[in-house]
Amino acid sequence: MNFDESQTKTNLARAFAGECQAGARYQFxxxxxxxxxxxxxxxxxxxxxxxxxxxxxxxxxxxxxxGGTPDTNIEIKAGYPFQDGNIMDMxxxxxxxxxxxxxxxxxxxxxxxxxxxxxxxAEKFKLVALVENDHFMILxxxxxxxxxxxxxxxxxxxxxxxxxxxxxxxxxxxxxxCPLCDLSNDYIDLSFVNSAxx
Length: 198
Ligand SMILES: [Fe+2]
Ligand SMILES: [Fe+2]
Description:
198 residues; Ferritin; Rubrerythrin, domain 2; 61% helix; binds fe (ii) ion
């Protein structure tokens, strides 16, 4: 099939636009977090935003490498939810977005690419969907912990690592202030929200 006439080209453009918007939303959440002194949430959002921009680049490059005619306007029809609110609300809706990307949107785009004979693109949609699943788990776990106000407690011992000085404690509850650099638990590296979920 001619790439310029394929549905896959349009889907890549949609995916590119969606990833850019996700990247922007995560930066906005990060800006809210920093205003509230939650440095660790800002750092997490910065990492997620970086991932989304990398995904956008993958989709952009696929359009180019498959001979998409440059300097054309690719028409796309898509909903772009406007989501604002407090940090928790935005994390919750972001988790839902990640879930629909990895369980519905990208698997569908992958199948269409496969059917249209673009196996390499089908594979990229699958690989990005796997990352979006990780994002879902991170955001869903973080939301649940924030909601239960138990973000720094765990049923099993966890490693609590200060994102500022690198000091690590292991236990069922994190420190309020880092024993080494004295910064608050708002600096604790949040990578545990993912491992705790699994
Ligand atoms: Fe993404
Ligand atoms: Fe994502």
